[in-house]
Backbone:
């Protein structure tokens, strides 16, 4: 039996380097080892032809039912455009104080907005998005601190404005639950 | 977030409810969901939610009918109507029925965030406004008018009844009886209490200054008018204007004032634009305006325009029963402001205070107490701390003869009926003093 960990469940083809970097950033922030797994699930049934997007609510529920031993949190990483019925799109979403979260890189790419490709920036945005959604699974709400990663982001500019770390106040909230960053080990 | 905002989501689609629930819960709102209006009203029975997001099309009662019923229960409720198919007609109907906003599904995440943030800000402003109103009422309460004597009770009853009306009021009373305090009490108990109370001391200003003060002036209207300035009538819009010492205004100003009172419009000095202002006039005077009208020094038409209601404040000597209460009030007031422990007052000192005539009324009493607290030992106010030595005691003195009789009697008592010393103190010769003693039949008092 291994230690409690966080699992990144990748849907679609991602560069190993990118996934390793994500694992590294998540471990640094939450202090748990991060396990990377490739998901083998046909997501076409979650496709909404009218909206030409994938239903985030349904995908989140499916991920939540997956049994990955010793994983206290699971975050699904997608390449497709996600929506929830009430909103035109989402970057990601999570069960508050729950086990699962999802995030998509689809709307985090510069190319989507007619700008030049920028891989380091994309990497940073994905890190922020995953840490943000995982923060919700640890019970963190949106934070008023403009540079905290838990700041609500509805536009790409909002994502770029914040840092990829939790602020002191959010760290304290996590510490009460026994979750501590591992930055000193990096 | 100071107060946790509560949101009720009413939609027959479970996926919509779940999506909104998850979205708002992450922002720290308190969220509840209902699948139809019936369930929503069950929840509303126990909890009046701050924001209600309701779908327009639902089985049973639709969103618009629900909006009307919620508004009947809680008019200030913020109801946002959601729909999948927006039409101008339904949007207008919803807004006319009091909806805060009308949104089409699906929303842009940023729009939804802003919509709820704006609604939250409005709730905070309404709450803040309510709290401030409560504070204002507490601050400007009639508690500052001290008195339980019948004369004061009658006057306070008059204040209470006249406050609810919009009529002009003249407050009469001797100097120092607290006319401005009564004017404030009328204002703070009136429906105009949340608007300004503007006070103008007419006696302290020359005619031209008073004109500029009341009506305002335009830039360059006269030498020194560097900027345009709003007048007191303009400042008192929706509130009350208190014109103290109204009897002192010049005949020219009387005409101007009458015109403003009749039309509620005026022109700034040096200006040409007519300005409207809705104010209530409360005046005060220590003169008898009726006599002034008879003498021709105060315009009759202005007198009748102002004198819809008259409130007379009795002088302090006519309400001796209130003196201990007032003394206690001023001791607490000045001890607090001077950071001293509350002082006590000797029974003899209090008795003398009740015998005093108070030509300066409450203002004089207040000054005496303030002085006594400054010069006294800080624990107890004794007779020696009060400036009563050279003053006459309260009596029904109306004539000069009465005044002279009482005064000579006091000085004789002070010098133990030593004629030479008394005559010297009074700066008269001994023969004159003997004549006065004989005239008033003065005798030593044990």
Residues:
């Amino acid at each position: 039996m291994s230690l409690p960990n966080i699992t990144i469940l990748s849907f679609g083809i991602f560069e190993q380097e990118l996934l390793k970097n994500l694992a590294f950033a998540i471990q640094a922030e939450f202090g748990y080892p991060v396990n990377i797994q490739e998901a083998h699930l046909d997501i076409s049934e979650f496709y909404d032809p009218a909206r030409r997007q994938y239903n985030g609510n349904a995908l989140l529920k499916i991920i939540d039912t997956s049994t990955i031993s010793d994983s206290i949190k699971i975050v699904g990483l997608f390449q497709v455009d996600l929506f929830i019925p009430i909103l035109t799109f989402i970057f990601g979403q999570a069960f508050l104080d729950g086990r699962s979260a999802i995030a998509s890189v689809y709307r985090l790419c510069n190319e989507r907005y007619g700008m030049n490709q920028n891989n380091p920036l994309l990497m940073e945005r994905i890190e922020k998005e995953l840490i943000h959604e995982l923060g919700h699974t640890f019970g963190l709400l949106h934070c008023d601190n403009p540079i905290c990663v838990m700041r609500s982001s509805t536009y790409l500019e909002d994502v770029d404005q914040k840092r990829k770390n939790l602020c002191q106040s959010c760290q304290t909230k996590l510490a009460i639950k026994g979750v501590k960053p591992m930055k000193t080990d990096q | 977030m100071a107060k946790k905002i509560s949101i009720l989501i009413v939609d027959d689609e479970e996926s919509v409810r779940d999506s909104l629930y998850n979205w708002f819960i992450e922002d720290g709102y308190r969220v509840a969901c209902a699948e139809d209006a019936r369930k929503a009203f069950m929840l509303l029975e126990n909890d009046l939610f701050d924001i209600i997001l309701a779908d327009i099309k639902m089985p049973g009662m639709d969103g618009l009918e629900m909006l009307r019923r919620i508004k009947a229960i809680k008019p200030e409720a913020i109801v946002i109507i959601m729909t999948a198919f927006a039409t101008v007609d339904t949007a207008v109907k919803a807004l006319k029925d009091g909806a805060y906003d009308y949104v089409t599904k699906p929303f842009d995440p940023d729009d939804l965030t802003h919509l709820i943030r704006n609604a939250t800000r409005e709730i905070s402003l309404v709450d803040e406004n309510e709290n401030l109103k409560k504070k204002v009422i507490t601050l400007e309460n009639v508690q500052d008018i001290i008195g339980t004597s019948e004369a004061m009770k009658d006057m306070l009853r008059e204040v209470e009844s006249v406050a609810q009306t919009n009529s002009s009021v003249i407050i009469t009373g001797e100097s120092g009886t607290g006319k401005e305090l009564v004017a404030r009490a009328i204002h703070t108990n009136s429906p105009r209490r949340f608007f300004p109370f503007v006070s103008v001391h007419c006696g302290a200003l020359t005619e031209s200054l008073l004109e500029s003060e009341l009506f305002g002036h335009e830039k360059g209207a006269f030498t020194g008018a560097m900027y345009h300035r709003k007048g007191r009538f303009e400042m008192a819009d929706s509130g009350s204007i208190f014109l103290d010492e109204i009897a002192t205004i010049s005949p020219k100003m009387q005409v101007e004032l009458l015109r403003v009172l009749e039309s509620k419009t005026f022109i700034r000095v040096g200006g040409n634009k007519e300005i409207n202002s809705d104010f209530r006039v409360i005046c005060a005077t220590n003169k008898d305006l009726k006599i002034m009208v008879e003498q021709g020094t105060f315009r009759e038409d202005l007198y009748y325009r102002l004198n819809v209601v008259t409130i007379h404040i009795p002088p302090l000597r006519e309400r001796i029963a209130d003196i201990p209460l007032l003394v206690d009030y001023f001791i607490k007031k000045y001890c607090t402001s001077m950071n001293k422990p509350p002082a006590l007052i000797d029974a003899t000192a209090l008795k003398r205070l009740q015998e005093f005539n108070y030509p300066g009324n409450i203002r004089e009493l207040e000054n005496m107490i303030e002085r006594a607290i400054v010069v006294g030992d800080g624990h107890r106010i004794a007779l020696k701390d009060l400036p009563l030595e050279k003053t006459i005691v309260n009596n029904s003195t109306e004539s000069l003869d009465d005044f002279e009789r009482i005064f000579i009697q006091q000085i004789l008592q002070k010098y133990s009926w030593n004629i030479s010393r008394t005559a010297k103190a009074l700066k008269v010769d001994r023969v004159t003093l003997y004549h006065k003693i004989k005239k008033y039949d003065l005798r030593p008092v044990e």
Notes: The mean pLDDT of chain A is 91. Chain A touches chain B through 19 residues (CB under 8 Å). Helices of chain A lie at 16-30, 56-65, 119-137, 156-161, 168-176.
